[in-house]
Design goal:
single chain, 33 strands, alpha+beta
């Protein structure tokens, strides 16, 4: 049984490799139908799959591959010509084969689908030969053709011993290529790489130890160890290297299908497919690369009639180019399409609320092009199943930067666009320059290093100048901006006499100098990722263990440049400008401020507070395992907030007398939170500074001029085992609400109330995000703020009304008017304001009313793929 499973596993691996090759060869064959050698390769691949699945008893797979083989046999024999319809039919067979292979891998069986329709169409195509053999037909040389007996055996489904089924071997001997290769699991290779990394660390430690000893035997042995370790590291690294053609092989099929679907003519050219990368890098760039190709096909290259009007050939060209440069791999995706208009991008950014007007006027063309990497940005006039949702380019940039790469874009309107990716060869072991600063050691990746400069004596004052207060170094007649590492990382510099060491670095397409206290040496380092607590530090790309066992941080060259101000902070400038525009229009919020335990200033929205009360300690009783007090002819459960936040227990005795209590009242249920002291009721503009990872808090914000921690009331209510808002919100179970508001803080407060009531909440900060959420989630109701960018709540309501699948979804404006579309919307007697007590009750009443109405088809049921 184990032998059979191993055989099937080998069959799956080999068949998937063959199918990948088929995709590439069939698309190539469509452009070169006269290539007999290519056609023979396609025939042999199909024949191999058919013969193997017949041996293993996979009848469905054997049947459809046999029909496809019959068609290819006619092409091989020159009895018919190749046309796009025939290629599509064979590609459909490839897809069906993949589906069956997936079922075999998952369940061990072929699955219930028999593909009878596909088999019938293949058989009908084979029986209908419309083109007689003649000039221009595809044929195979007579010397390579199969004999009639072999052909008969092939047609009957039996693998014949013919030259077609098996490639001719040199000198009559069978090929030994299969015997010289074995398949090794990726997990084992990764384990070997990890072990080699640890071995490199030990080698570095031994070399450092040896350098401090005068022992010839130890020195000779350590040098031998160094040599063997280097050779082992190089060998293991080579096992992980793969040509980029591994992922490029899938792109001809992608481009071909997109061209057919979009009605375009696109020629794909690939240069440098043999360029090798580490397997982890290959995996990381696979999806971003596919997305860039899809974007070029959809947005870049124009339809044939448009290209001809512009004086271009009807067939567009998409070029993929890969090459090594400076220890990195450069990948270029270029098209000769319409290009991008920086002015239009700026206008779109302003319309979508991504940039304020004053920021749009300041940014240059390069910064404008980089706006396409902003989340939610798209200039597409309509959304298609290919692209247009504004999702994807930001993900591309994020993925590339995660592996230490960069993305650059250049474009000329009417001429085309080029996206250039610069990525490292590997992420595991890299050469680095060790520098000293403030008594600490840092490592600079050698891939970013251009040169080292050492200045002494009067050369320091002569070569380092100041321009508008910014230090620059005059290097070969040009001014190079410099920064001091000690100032960037906050350490005290250790000046060594009157000497200065400058490390000249390359960040994207810019250069700058970094002044350090000293330069040690270069060595190979094993990159270790930073912990999650340090992920937000843009100055560091990771850490490594040095020869003496101490940890050294690896500098992020681009982050250092941006933090010091020597680089033009394109993306960061845009982000800060957008945030500044948001902060310019603060809304006043009424908040209750109080103290509990070690937390001196806690805030909650006053809108969810029913009353503030004081109870003598003597009136507090226990009912079961909970603290309670008799309050207005009912029993009011109490939660001691100090104990809950500090120990996780909701009960316990408050030390204050009388106890100060915040009462929450939903009409059906009440709960009291005991606090140490109620400080104030404030009506202030607030700015959320950061989210909190502490249990019990939503985040921190500046209220007035002081920081306050915002309590997660939902956490408190869950900890007290109270079903808050159960009376009005129990019906929220399994209901999804879209909350559209430009203010993240306002969304957070409203979301807490809704989630406490059992609703699932999806958020949007502008119109485009709201439309995207509607497409991706079945939504039962929409709550929208009146000032939703870019054109207010009415724009979202109108957009929904124009789509039949969304037209019946109820919409409530949180600003004070209640607009409902569709016959299924519940009727309300009055408009509720979303900011007051009535607003909270009105929102929940509005949503609970949905339960009594017949529901339309869910909005966004037909989910589109995220691009």
């Amino acid at each position: 049984m184990d032998d059979e499973q191993d055989l099937i596993r080998e069959f799956l691996v080999e068949s998937n490799e063959n199918l990948s090759r088929l995709d590439r060869d069939l698309v190539e064959l469509e452009t070169r139908p006269q290539d007999a050698q290519l056609l023979a390769s396609v025939f042999r691949t199909i024949h191999t799959i058919k013969g193997t699945c017949g041996f293993l008893g996979f009848s469905t797979l054997e049947r459809i591959s046999h029909q496809a083989e019959s068609l290819l046999s006619q092409l091989r024999d020159g009895r018919r010509t190749l046309d796009p319809g025939l290629v599509s039919l064979i590609l459909e067979t490839v897809d069906a084969t993949r589906k069956v292979l997936g079922s075999i891998e998952a369940t061990g069986k072929e699955g219930p689908e028999q593909f009878e329709n596909l088999a019938d169409r293949l058989r009908e195509a084979a029986e209908r030969i419309d083109f007689p053999c003649g000039s221009g037909q595809v044929g195979i040389e007579a010397g390579n053709d199969a004999s009639p007996a072999a052909q008969a055996a092939t047609e009957s489904g039996v693998a014949a011993n013919s030259d077609v089924a098996t490639p001719p071997a040199a000198n009559g001997k069978p090929s030994a290529a299969a015997d010289s290769n074995i398949r090794v699991g990726v997990v084992l290779l990764d384990k070997l790489m990890d072990l080699v990394g640890e071995l490199v660390l030990i080698r570095n430690q031994i070399l450092q130890f040896t350098a401090e000893r005068d022992d010839m035997v130890l020195s000779s042995t350590s040098q031998r160890l160094n040599l063997i370790t280097s050779e082992l590291q190089e060998g293991v690294m080579k096992t992980r290297m793969q040509p980029i053609g591994v992922i490029w092989n899938k792109l001809p099929r992608v481009v071909r299908d997109l061209a057919v679907g979009l009605g375009k003519q696109i020629r794909l050219e690939m240069d440098g497919a043999e360029t090798e990368l580490d397997r982890t890098i290959i995996e990381a760039i696979k999806d971003p690369l596919v997305h860039l190709v899809r974007n070029s096909c959809d947005h870049g290259i124009e339809p044939p009639e448009v290209r001809q009007r512009c004086g271009k050939p009807p067939q567009g060209k998409l070029l993929l180019r890969a090459y090594h440069e400076g220890g990195q791999v450069n990948i270029e995706i270029s098209d000769d399409g319409a290009g991008m208009d920086a002015a239009r991008i700026k206008q779109t950014a302003m319309e979508k609320g991504i940039l304020p007007l004053e920021m749009v006027q300041r940014i240059n063309e390069r910064e404008a092009l980089n706006l396409i990497f902003r989340p939610g940005f798209s200039t597409a006039a309509s959304v298609s199943n290919v692209s247009g949702r504004g999702v994807g380019m930001d993900v591309v940039k994020t993925h590339i930067e995660k592996i230490g790469g960069t993305v650059d874009i250049s474009s000329k309107p009417g001429e085309g666009t080029t996206v250039k990716l610069r990525i490292p060869l590997t992420l595991a072991i890299i050469p680095g320059l060790v520098v000293n600063c403030g008594g600490e050691r840092f490592v600079i990746p050698q891939v970013s290093l251009l040169e080292l400069v050492h200045l002494e004596g009067d050369a320091v004052d002569r070569r380092i100048e100041y321009v508008h207060g910014t230090p620059v170094y005059r290097r070969r007649g040009k001014l190079l901006p410099i920064s001091y590492l000690s100032e960037v990382v906050g350490l005290k510099a250790e000046r060594r006499g009157d000497a200065v060491s400058i490390v000249v670095l390359q960040a994207e397409d810019r250069q700058y100098g970094l002044v350090v206290d000293g330069i040690s040496d270069t060595q190979e380092i094993v990159v270790k990722p930073l912990g999650k607590q340090l992920k937000g530090l843009s100055l560091y790309a990771g850490a490594t263990i040095m020869g003496d066992g101490r940890v050294a941080l690896i500098l992020d060259v681009q982050g250092i440049g941006q933090a010091s101000g020597v680089l033009e902070e394109t993306r960061e400038q845009v982000r800060r400008g957008s945030e500044a525009a948001d902060r310019a229009e603060h809304e006043l919020h009424r908040l209750l401020l109080f103290r509990a335990g070690a937390y001196e200033r806690i805030a909650i929205p006053l809108s969810i507070v029913a009353r503030l009360e004081e109870f003598p300690r003597s009136s507090i009783e226990r009912a079961g395992d909970a603290m309670v007090v008799q309050y207005r002819q009912r029993i009011l459960p109490l939660v001691v907030l100090r104990n809950l936040l500090e120990s996780g227990e909701a009960d316990g005795i408050s030390t204050a007398d009388p106890a100060q209590v915040i009462v929450f009242d939903d009409g059906d249920q009440r709960l009291g939170i005991v606090v140490d002291q109620i400080l104030d009721i404030a009506e202030q503009a607030i700015t959320v500074r950061q989210r909190s990872t502490r249990k019990g808090f939503l985040g921190s914000a500046v209220v007035g001029t002081r920081v306050a921690d915002f309590l997660d009331v939902d956490h408190v209510l869950q900890a007290s085992a109270a079903r808050w808002f159960q009376g009005t919100g129990a019906s929220g179970k399994e209901k999804t609400v879209l909350l559209a508001d430009r203010s993240p803080f306002a969304r957070g407060l409203t979301r807490g109330t809704l989630e406490m009531s059992g609703y699932t909440v999806v958020e949007a900060g502008n119109l485009d995000q709201a439309m995207r959420e509607l497409e991706q989630h079945p939504v039962d109701a929409v709550l929208v703020a009146e000032d939703l960018p870019p054109r207010g709540a009415g724009a979202l309501a109108d957009a929904m009304h124009s789509r039949p699948e969304w037209a019946l979804i109820p919409v409530m404006d949180l600003a004070g008017w209640d607009k409902r579309r569709g016959a299924h919307a519940p009727q309300a007697s009055e408009t509720q304001d979303g900011d007051g007590n009535g607003g909270r009750t009105g929102i929940l009443s509005f949503l609970s009313g949905l339960q009594d109405q017949p529901q339309p088809e869910p909005a966004g049921a037909a989910h589109g793929d995220k691009e």
